[in-house]
Amino acid sequence: MPTKKGLRHLLDTVSLEKKWVYDLFAEAARYKKQVIAAGRPKNDLLGEHVGLLFFENSTRTRSSFHIAAANLGADPVTVEIAFSSVQKGESLEDTVMTMEATGCHFLVIRHGEPLASERAARVSKNAHVINAGDGAHEHPTQALLDTFTVYERRKDVAGLTYLFLGDILHSRVARSNFILLRNLGAKRLLVCGPPSLLPPDEELKNLGVEFVGNMRQAMAQADVIQVLRIQLERHGDRLAMTPGSYREAYGMTRQRLREYCKKNVMIFHPGPMNVGVEIDRDVADGAHSCVLAQVVNGVAIRMALLTALHKNCRR
Amino acid sequence: MNISRIIDVRVVDPASGCEYFADLTLQKGFIVKIEHKNRLGHVRGQPLDSKESSGCPRISRGVLQARGACVSPSLWDLHVHLREPGQEQKETILTGAGAAVRGGVGHLFAMPNTQPAIDSEEILTAVTARAAEAAHLADIGFFAAATIARQGAKPVDVYRLSKLGAVGFSDDGSPIGDARLLRMLLDETSALGSFVADHCEMPDLMADGVMHEGRHSRHMGLPGIPRQAEYLAVSRDIEILKISRGRLHLAHLSTRESVEAVRRAKHEGLAGRLTCEACPHHFSLTHDAIKLFGPNAKVNPPLREKDDLDAIIDGLQDGTIDAIASDHAPHCDWEKDKGMIEAPFGLIGLETMLPVTLTYLVRQGRLPLMRAIELLTVGPAKVLGRAVPAIAVGQPADLVIFDPECEVVFDSFVSKSRNSPYLGHSLYGKVVATLRKGRMVYPEGSA
Predict the structure, then answer these.
(1) What are phi and psi of B345, to 5 degrees?
(2) Is the ipTM of this complex over 0.85?
(3) What is the reported pTM?
(4) How far apart are CA A11 and CA A108, in angstroms?
(5) Contacts of B380 (CB under 8 A, 6+ apart)
(6) Is the CB of residue B441 less than 8 Å from the CB of residue B136?
(7) Which residues from chain B sit within 8 angstroms of residue A199, using beta carbons?
(8) Which of A190, A261, B127, B218 has fewest C-beta within 10 Å?
(9) DSSP state at residue A105
């Protein structure tokens, strides 16, 4: 919430102001150059503890926060949820208060429940709560790192057309990206995917997003294509399509990249990828792919975020 | 044999809404010329001889003359069971096509409740290949099952099956019970320009019923199927359609409440996405037919009451109902002979669809001929999202020539089965000839 003191928590993308975002990008770019590329950690957050409360599985987000904290001299504290008191029935609120009491000033939370980080923020006294993904609601740091990657390469975010491919309905990445990109004035936001995995038309309208039924048309217009994970583990056989048909109908294939896409298109995937289903190996590893840049930038943006929250709101 | 001219016929063309006398010239399977006439026989100055209205075409050197007969695009039947693969003793794709052309049906669309069900690429490819062997008779399309083995649990690959030519998706014979699955299928088929056809029924209410629950079922002591079993499912489907994207077709409506629910939904803005069909037996017979015809009148949904029949006819009239479909469901004699409880549901209808429509609707003044033919041609084509058939220059010569005044006795059927309540009965409206791409495919071997 923006207060007189500035942003204390990062719970969603709705509350982010343009200036704050661009300042964050500048800071992230600086960290990327001075810390990550140079391999020289800083001590900006020396002595701070960053609690990583991951109630859901994660590889890149968790390690990215871990390294971001370490790069700044802070101490990442990982709570192994599977071995924690959560298994004994401890509530989210109690877990948060406990972690804060142990001295964590940052609480990074990934949870399957939408608005879990808001619940955490409500009970935290002084800590900074960061939403690292709450159900199908939001994943603000992912949207920030995605947009930072675009910004870094094109020096422009607003004038571009973005295409989101696949499961929009269950994607917190898509939702956070829509809101952030609209705040930053993106030219057009397009979606394409199985109709049963698209939000209702009314919701798309509210988000300022256009549905384009034809893959060729959609791809031809896009400067950035965000390929979303088709969550086979969540919908499984509820999708009336085999993985092979999915690829044929909506996959980011080599052939489509070659035949339909702009020459300088940027291809994103928030991971983990189903290679050979929503994206071809060649595309994921190819020249247009930003998948690994996303990971590197994830560390930079999270470093910038931790310092920004820390600076904006001195205790 | 190839027909080059059809003379002295009354053209009934629902695509244009025009009815007129004309001679048609055909070439290479297409209509190439239409010569309007003021009235029948006027050009030749010959009076109409009632004896000539025998229902038999007079053919010489490719010129077909059928005084008093009408010509329209050959009929479309949205809902047939061809029993192949798995129950070839009842019907095959080829015998079904034979029955179709005897009934003037040139386009028929088979339901996937075969054994095994048409739920995979392999089966769809196989039946499509069999249909190609009957393509000289009629155009045959297939619905694919909505779920694997029609079990209602796991959806089929709608993308692949659509690309392979499935005309739509249905678990016909069973409803799609899982509402969330129905919603998903409606959404997914919308991206493919396809649709879902549902057999509306609440299985719990249907239970072990064998006929309409009412006066007659109670009198005979037979377990009944309440009308609610259908219309509650119809209402549910309509509500799900409201929160989905695609197109929904409701098969064989039988109750007043169902027709009214569809009418209301269409008024409320679903007209472009909701269609439905009614079967000839549901607008010609009522539940007392069970007393007369026994298992040959056992059908699901069951024959209902006079009031339902009237509601269906109103629906056919005012456009609530989009198409007439036969629900042709062949069964062997020995199966139907098991009695009311044990006999399977279903009756054949390809050969009687047109005469029943003409006898019970048109002759009784309850539906204009033009509207009746529309419901048998243009209506179903629109449901399928296909090009509307028409009598016009450049259109394929897929035609039916029929005599609405000529009586025909159904002593035997071309179908492999004969489970029809009309068996041995006389109806008005004889199919004089059926043409497929300008070739006469019924009657066979004539001239």
Answers:
(1) -75, 145
(2) no
(3) 0.91
(4) 10
(5) B76, B77, B78, B107, B277, B322, B323, B324, B325
(6) yes
(7) none
(8) B218
(9) S
